[in-house]
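re: ur question from earlier - yeah i can do the single chain one, its not a big deal. heres the input i used so u can compare w yours
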Amino acid sequence: MFCAETAFQLLVSRLNKDKSDGCCSTHLIDGDGNFNVDGMDSFSKEVKLAECGLSYAVVSIMGPQSSGKSTLLNHLFNTNFKEMDAFKGRSQTTKGIWMARCVGIEPCTLVMDLEGTDGRERGEDDTAFEKQSSLFSLAVSDIVLINMWCHDIGREQAANKPLLKTVFQVMMRLFSPRKTTLMFVIRDKTRTPLKNLEPLLREDIQRVWHMVNYYCILMQTLLSEFFNVEVVALSSFEEKEEQFKEQVDGLRKRFFHSIAPGGLAGDRRAVVPASGFSFSAQQIWKIIKENKDLDLPAHKVMVATVRCEEIANEKFSSFIANKEWRQLEETVQAQLVPGFGRKLSSILDACLSEYDAEATYFDESVRSSKRSQLEEKLMQLVQPAYQFMLGHIRSGTLEKFKEAFDKALNSGKGFTGAACDCTEYYMSQFDERSADAEIDQANWDCSRVRDKLQRDIDAHVAAVSSAKLSELLTTYETKLNKAISGPVEALFEGANNDTWLAIRKLIQREIETAVAGFSGALSGFEMDEETKDKMLLRLKEHARGLVESKAKEEAGRVLIRMKDRFSTLFSQDSDSMPRVWTGKEDIRAITKAARSASLKLLSVMAANRLDDNADTIESTLSLALMDPKSTNKGTSVDPLASSSWAEVPPSKTLITPVQCKSLWRQFKAETEYTVTQAIAAQA
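and the output i got, formated as tokens:
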């Protein structure tokens, strides 16, 4: 449990966010070694760390107290760590470990500001926290900045020597050392060129490494196996501030994409997914606090691990640079490569055989494990090329199927037979070609690509089938149009008692003819009876639809047809000769006959009688319009004062009773002049 002072300190070191520059920071571990769990969780949520996956980096800085570590971080990463006030004298500014997110650096980069070493506040003998924080930094960081004074380089009693010794000693406590980049930042650089300072510094580093390594089981292990060493130099911030800032701006660029191959931490290992970083950091700190010494792997296993990984990495790099592989990879991206599987299997086998030869004397379990890892990396590397190859096989097979299928159909082969034969043949062709592309070292299943090809073939067959059926249906619908439209129009024009009977016989005959031909054409397609019946029904409904459409069209022209019929019958005699009005003609009788014939046309067009249902439309119209007096004797109700016929459903009604009455009134008004002229001619 934390004491009240610690709780207050945690509250003070809450998650901070600078609204001006977007920097987030938290006091991760306080000066007493307490891990700020709530602060870390809040920090992780604030920076959306869990969304980063593996695309994030961790940077830390260590160095002597009051050496300008926080100042460097703030200028380098736009963070907001508390800096020392030079006017108040040198004293401890950073206590414990602070963490912040770098502003404007991609990918997401977290930076830790560690409490300075050799501070007078902790005293000379209290180095426990220094070692714990150093070990924690090495365990979680990809890049560790080591701040040091320029004047300490080459000095035997330099302030950086204990720090280097601490770093190398705590590295030995790591159960599984990371490949960490140590960036030595030389502060307050003098006139001595960096090219002269760097060899001296590297010599100091190697000397400390050998001193620490001498009595260790890692004796004769190279520094480069655990660390990448970088050296940079910066001018004095206080004396050459502008020059310092320019140099820091240049250094900042090196942290962009630091985890990419070739970056500062491009070869890092054992990365914890970002979503588990908070918990991982807590557990690492807990282990460091509770265990004075962490056991290293056994010497044999450790050496085997390092060496076998080296060999595996060498062989992997050698494979990547292999000319045959590079040419094969480049070619397969553009086109199908004959013998792809055999060629690639041979290159892979040579690579793995070389690994086996060089690693044969190392621990078997480690050797096998590293071989499996190498094989897995190689498979991940070559799998895209294999997928390209399968893609070429699939697309090529599909195109050849389409060509063969079209050719078979054009030659007159039945649709179903052509589809089945072509599908069977080209699926077997895919199986043969995909087997040729198989890699001996991989156990990959091409069933997904095969299923995709099958779906593509099925989709093409379905599309062609749909197009052919649609084309076939359109052909027979066009035939029906020609066979029905003209005769139906002629029958409506000469409408009489037998008009609808003649139309029914006409469409029955033409439907039977079309259905017989269409059924024969469908025999080449594989379809169930239900689907076939639906298509035949559609053809029949099309024929009925033609008649219904023509009937509605003619119903819209009925007044014109009635006037034409009246004019013809009134103006011509029974021999179709023009009448000469001599005074002997019975104009009343002629008029009645012509009107009666026109009324017949109206009654025929008033309803759709394709279903041969009896109705009284003709008699109703005749009584109501030709002999209205007899209609009104028995009742005062107008039989045409309605919007529907008693025996006819609305869907079959073409002209309503009230419309018929209106049309008749208009018809009489527009033909009255012709009658009047005839009467005048007799006078």
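The radius of gyration is 49 Å. not sure if urs matches, ping me
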